[in-house]
Design a protein that fits this description.
Layout: H1 6-9, H2 15-28, E1 34-35, H3 47-58, H4 71-85, E2 94-97, H5 100-111, E3 117-122, H6 127-134, E4 138-143, H7 154-158, E5 165-171, H8 183-195, E6 199-203, H9 224-229, E7 230-235, E8 248-251, H10 255-268, H11 274-285, H12 288-309, E9 325-329, E10 337-338, E11 341-342, H13 346-357, E12 359-360, E13 362-363, E14 372-376, H14 381-395
Parallel strand pairs: 1-12, 3-4, 3-5, 5-6, 6-7
Antiparallel strand pairs: 2-8, 7-8, 9-14, 10-11, 13-14
Helix pairs in contact: 3-11, 4-11, 5-6, 5-10, 12-14
Bound molecules: pyridoxal-5'-phosphate (PLP).
């Protein structure tokens, strides 16, 4: 048989989804697994949002909408950007897609030619490099450091040859590190992009989950030149605990980008689910209480997790300011032996944790961060306490 597409074969399956599936399978077989792998809030979608979806079904609002998203939802997004982010866009500058992941692919497709470079600070969310490769572009990874809060600096950017760079992806707050960029840090990055005519893909899907009283600042909010080059990515998944509803969106004042994505989406998927779009209008307009309560819960869990983890002498963790993940530094574990197995890397560590302690975590290598594992605190306090205790107990046997 003739071989299948080289491009298709170059895509790596998502490591996070694979591990979540393995932990789920063990659980379904009756094993008492504590899973720190969740990439979604462990809250139900609020009732008022669910009811809006049910109402849409009952009213027969179950037909095609405009391919780029229905007017009512675009209007709610425009209002949200104006009132919450102090950003003015028109409805024609918004495109609603089947989740932010889909929005990201669309944007990369619209911007990149074969051979373009796309800057991606590491640690990064596992999907970015694969999407960059999928459109024929090259991920240019810039390794950030734990001591700098896992944030890319202007000094690092100044060392890059910008000639072939089409775009940079700034994920703020960041998955997997929880890093949150300050206004000044965004300004430095944004001005560098303006200087070299580089697009900024600003993935702000965790914007509502920032702690310690920090104010989230959108990249597009710094100045008009930066806004012109910024394409905002956002969505319903994390803010409203609507991961299964599949609604994401972009905002951009670049007409060409909007035109290309509208056309692409009209052929590839048509509109995102009409029911989810109706529910998303209610989500955007009436969720303040839910968001506050989810954020308060996450902040409490983060603090609990940090205090427990920092009580384990073999590993360490800096304080993340956003999202719902911590990056556990396991560099002192590499080369040591646990349960008779030599730990050579983050995959070995994740494996031994799952096999010996029934705790599942995500190896850092998938995020371009060898020497770390990611733990999600999107689980109950009781499970956090039990899971970290198991890690501590297992590490105490390390030789
Ligand atoms: C940084 C980041 N961007 C985008 C997404 C995708 O979200 P969606 O469910 O809207 O596709 C995720 C989901 O994990 C994420 O972590």
């Amino acid at each position: 048989m003739k071989s299948i597409s080289k491009l298709g074969q170059s895509i790596q399956p998502s490591l996070t989804l694979a591990l979540t599936a393995k932990a789920k399978k063990m659980k379904s077989q009756g094993e008492d697994v504590i899973s720190f792998t969740a990439g979604e809030p462990d809250f139900n979608t609020p009732e008022n949002i669910c009811n809006a979806g049910i109402e849409a079904i009952n009213k027969g609002l179950t037909k095609y909408t405009v391919a780029s998203g229905m007017d009512e939802l675009k209007e709610a997004i425009v209002n949200k950007l104006s009132s919450e982010n102090n950003l003015e866009y028109t409805k024609s500058q918004i495109i609603v897609s089947n989740g932010a992941k889909h929005s990201l692919f669309n944007v990369l497709f619209a911007l990149c030619n074969e051979g373009d470079d796309v800057i991606l600070p590491s640690p990064y969310w596992v999907t970015y490099p694969e999407l960059i490769k999928l459109v024929g572009a090259n991920p240019i990874i810039i390794e950030t450091s734990e001591s700098n809060g896992f944030k890319v600096t202007i000094d690092q950017l100044n060392k890059i040859d910008p000639t072939k760079v089409k775009a940079i992806i700034i994920n703020n707050p960041n998955n997997p590190t929880g890093a949150v960029y300050s206004k000044k840090e965004l300004e430095d990055i944004g001005n560098w992009c303006v200087k070299h005519d580089i697009y900024i893909i600003a993935d702000e899907i965790y914007e509502k989950l920032v702690y310690d009283g920090i104010n989230f600042v959108s990249m597009a909010n710094i100045n008009d030149d930066i806004k012109d080059r910024t394409i905002i990515i956002n969505g319903m998944s994390k803010t409203f605990s609507m991961t299964g509803w599949r609604i994401g969106y972009i905002a951009s004042n670049n007409d060409a980008v909007i035109r290309v994505i509208s056309g692409l989406q009209s052929h590839m998927t048509s509109n995102p689910c009409s029911i989810s779009q109706y529910a998303s209008v209610v989500a955007l307009e009436d969720s303040d209480e839910f968001i506050l309560s989810m954020k308060t819960t996450f902040e409490k869990r983060r603090n609990l997790m940090l205090s427990l983890v920092n009580d384990i002498k073999e590993v360490s963790c800096e304080k993340p300011e956003g999202a719902f993940y911590i990056m556990l530094n396991i560099q002192n574990v590499i080369g040591k032996t646990i349960a008779g197995k030599v730990i050579n890397n983050s995959i070995d560590f994740a494996d031994v944790l799952l096999d010996e302690a029934k705790v599942s975590v995500v190896p850092g290598v998938g995020f371009g961060a060898e020497g770390f594992v990611r733990l999600s605190y999107s689980i109950s306090e009781k499970d956090i306490e039990e899971g970290i205790k198991r890690i501590k107990d297992l590490l105490s046997t390390m030789r």
